[in-house]
Each structure stands twice: as structure tokens, then as C-alpha cells.
Amino acid sequence: MLYVMDYTKLTSKKQKLDYLRPFPINFEKNLYEWFRVELTYTSNAIEGNTLTRRETAIVIEEGLTIGGKDLREHLEAKNHALAWDFINTLIKKRPSQLSEKDVFTIHEIILKGIEDENAGCYRNVPVRISGSTVVMPNPRKVPELMDKFFEWITSKHGLHPVAFAGEAHYRFVSIHPFVDGNGRAARLIMNLLLMMHGYPPAIIRKGDRLPYLKALETAQLGGSKTDYEKIIAKAVERSLDIYLKAFKGNRAASKTSGQSVVVENIDSAKLLKIGELAKAAETSVSTIRYWTKEGLLEVVETTNSGYQLYSPEMAQQCKKIKELQEKRLTIREIRMKFLKEEKL
Fold first, then answer.
1. CB 125 within 8 A of CB 139
2. 8 A C-beta contact, residue 27 and residue 253
3. CB contact at 8 A, 38 and 266
């Protein structure tokens, strides 16, 4: 039996989002900047970049370098953030107006300073995906295949906007028109098409890397696209939830303090309650509360019930704190050490 994706839930959530528009300026700015970091971090991580989320933010927001990381990883972060800025200048276009020049510009930004000789031009050499048996098209066929890609983009396909954006991503990576940067370009194009239709961008999380790549490969080898379509739909739904939840929090905050809410984490299912963090760190809840109060631990989200949630990375942070305390460092010294490391 043929499986058909049901996008009803996504349509409903998007309608709720439309009802809340236009958003407050600060709310829009906060989410724009958050997605700028999160999309850069996750998209680069899928391609093997080792910068953490925090390091990515430091590189693109503060222009600092991270010790032990090579120049390419820094450039990948800066370039992706600039490419995100660029696609946001195209949102008011219709999908049918997406041009070859736009795609070349996206790719040129992605590879600027990394592979300038290949930036913004189709490949003229064969390419293979590491670890995959998928055979990519002959380079001589790329210009023709890309012409057909743009013809399809401008055609009346009748697809749901999420299905359309996901299919565009799939077709693009299956052509693999560039020597490098195809995945990053494909995800940016997909998100541009989503935003043109009023949807938020989809984030393929680092933890979804293997299922995502496997689902793509299965479809490219002639198998079902179902797993791939589910991954894209789920990614869009998460982003819709981020907007809806953030708006609710923003509205509640504005009633009390006039402050806007900044989204900190998209994967609430993997966050730890204070008791869970205490158990993972082999310490007490009161100690976790104290370290949090002193700024040694970061709360990434607070639930509607008032529960503070921590990222799993905070368990390692607790381990570092205990090691430094064993070396007789004071809380203030530990705090200053962490702040210094963040600026490296």
C-alpha cells in the first residue's frame, strides 16, 4: 500500500502562526538570530564541522576564533551565517522566481575563502558521496539537469509547501551540481522555499544526521521516500512549535517585565530536569541549584510548570566544576575560567 504523507497538522499549526502575525520586532529579531546560529551549527555539523553550538555562536556573533579549530571550520560558520542572511533577502520573491543566479550566489557565499575556484559554478568533474553507493550524474549532464530543476520549481506541481520544499532539497542533492557544499546549499534552498510560503525554516538536527543521510540514500537508490519525507515534516513541525511556544512565552513576559523571550534550545525531549542532571552528575539537587545561581550552569528552558531544564552537556560541565574544586579553585575562579574559555 502506497504511503501518503499527511500535512494536516503542519497546515493547522501554520494557520495558528499566521493568526499571530505580524510579530513584535524584538520577537522576530530574537528568533532570526537564534535560527541563524542553530541552522549554521546543525547544517555544518552534518557535514563534519566540529564546532559546538556555543563555539559557532562565538564565531559568527563575536568574530572570535576558537583554539584547536582550523580555519575552514571558522569560515564554514561565518559563510553559512552570511548565506542565511542572503536567503532572507529573497523571501518576498515567489518560488517560481528562484533563479540560477540566486543559487550560484548562495553557493558562492558558502565556499568563499574555502574553495573560491569552485564557488558559484557547476562542477566539471565526477563526484562521489563518502560511504555511499549512490552514483551521481555525469558532470556534463549537470547544466541540463539544473535547467530541468528550475523548470520544475516554476511548474504547477500542486504539492503541499512542505512537500515541495523537501522535494526541491531531494532533487538538488541528487543532481549534486557542485564540487562541494551541496548539502548546505540544498538545506538553505529548502528553507528559503519554506519561508517563501510562510513556514519557519526546518532544522535537521545533528542527532538526526545518520537517519537523514540514510533516508536520502534509500530514496536515491530507488527505495521509498517515506522516511525522508517524515524527517523533513518533523523538522518543520519542531520549528512551528518553537515559534508558537516562543510567542506564548514572549506574550507572558511582556505582561510582567516587557522583555522578549530568546529561544535557547529546540530539542526539549532530550533536556534534563534538575533531578536528572543531579543524578547524571552524581551530585545533589541543592548543589545543582547553587551552581546555577552562581552562573556555572546554564538553564536552556523553563517549562510552563516552572521546571528548569538543562542540556545534556551540563553533565560534563558539572564534572569540570568538581575537578576544578578538587584543585582548590573558588566558585569565582571557576566562573572566570569558564568565561575565558568561551571567549577563546
1. yes
2. no
3. yes
* pTM of structure: 0.75
How far is Cα 44 from Cα 23, in angstroms, rounded to an integer? 29
Q: How many CA atoms lie within 13 A of 270 on its CB side?
A: 12
Specify the amino acid at residue 323.
E
Calculate the CA dihedral of residues 101, 105, 106, 110 and round it to 10 degrees.
150
- What string of H, E and C letters represents the secondary structure of the chain? CCCCCCCHHHHHHHHHHHHHCCCCHHHHHHHHHHHHHHHHHHHHHHCCCCCCHHHHHHHHHHCCCCCCCCHHHHHHHHHHHHHHHHHHCCCCCCHHHCCHHHHHHHHHHHHCCCCCCCCCCCCCCCCECCCCCCECCCHHHHHHHHHHHHHHHHCCCCCCHHHHHHHHHHHHHHHCCCCCCHHHHHHHHHHHHHHHCCCCCCCCCHHHHHHHHHHHHHHHCCCCCHHHHHHHHHHHHHHHHHHHHHHHHHHHHHHHCCCCCCCCCCCHHHCEEHHHHHHHHCCCHHHHHHHHHCCCCCCCEECCCCCEEECCHHHHHHHHHHHHHHCCCCHHHHHHHHHHHHHC
Q: What is the pLDDT of residue 337?
A: 82
Segment 141-159, tens digit of pLDDT: 999 999 999 999 998 888 9
Domains parsed from the chain with CATH numbers: 8-253 (1.10.3290.10), 268-343 (1.10.1660.10)
Which residue numbers are catalytic? 176
Kindly report the number of other CB atoms within 10 A of residue 80's CB atom. Answer: 28
Mean pLDDT of 117-145: 93
Burial class (CB in 10 A: 0-12, 13-18, 19+), 267: middle
What is the structure's pLDDT at 341?
Answer: 64
Mean pLDDT for 276-293 is 91
